[in-house]
Model the fold of this input.
Amino acid sequence: MITVDFKRLAPKPGDNILDMGCGEGRHTARASEFPGTLCVGSDMCHDDLVTAGKKLTFHHQLIPGPVGNWTLTRSDIGKLPFKTGSFDLVICSEVMEHIREEKTALQELVRVLKSGGTLAITVPRYWPEKLCWTLSHEYCNSPGGHIRIYRGTRLIKKVSHQGMIPMGDHHAHALHTLYWWLKCLVGIHRTDSALVNKYHDLLVWDLMKKPTITRLAERLLNPILGKSMVLYFKKP
Done:
């Protein structure tokens, strides 16, 4: 499930790309498809990195023709082990809502980005996320869960205060919004809800098959129901 728009990022040969908070490597895999690039996936969770390595290896075996390179490393977003200006593109997807020291994290993301480089940040959209918090106490109180809800204007202002120039935004994953509302209603840790399980199967089918009808539906619904807010910035 890719959240950022790689057409906007436009990776080119020779680019170094950081996927910070890469999890199991979804954006790392997509970024490393571009020939001549080097994509670094980084996360605090060792188990996620092990899974990401397996998925990336398998993913690249399926791609015909030239691809980019990738590597994985464990690091803390508050103290990144990279030199200043190391990356042409930095992706930070669904991470900031988990971070207590958000200012330090933003400073580090900007520091490792080259002048003229692009930063893409995604976070849960305010009103769908607010409803999840309202429906479920568990949702926002699970270990490692979300500790804040961002309004778009607030996050844009915070990143701009680091000297970055806003370059546009959009929303993504409208079909996932209903899934999370349903999970919050029945209990986020429940696994026996037929309705939630059926809807999950639909999302998996949509991810694998990408049928025209659901792709069109999500495109139309994203401005209203999109679960994720995606922001793009340029470093002067």
Q: What stands out?
A: The domain at 6-126+144-173+225-234 is CATH 3.40.50.150 (Rossmann fold).
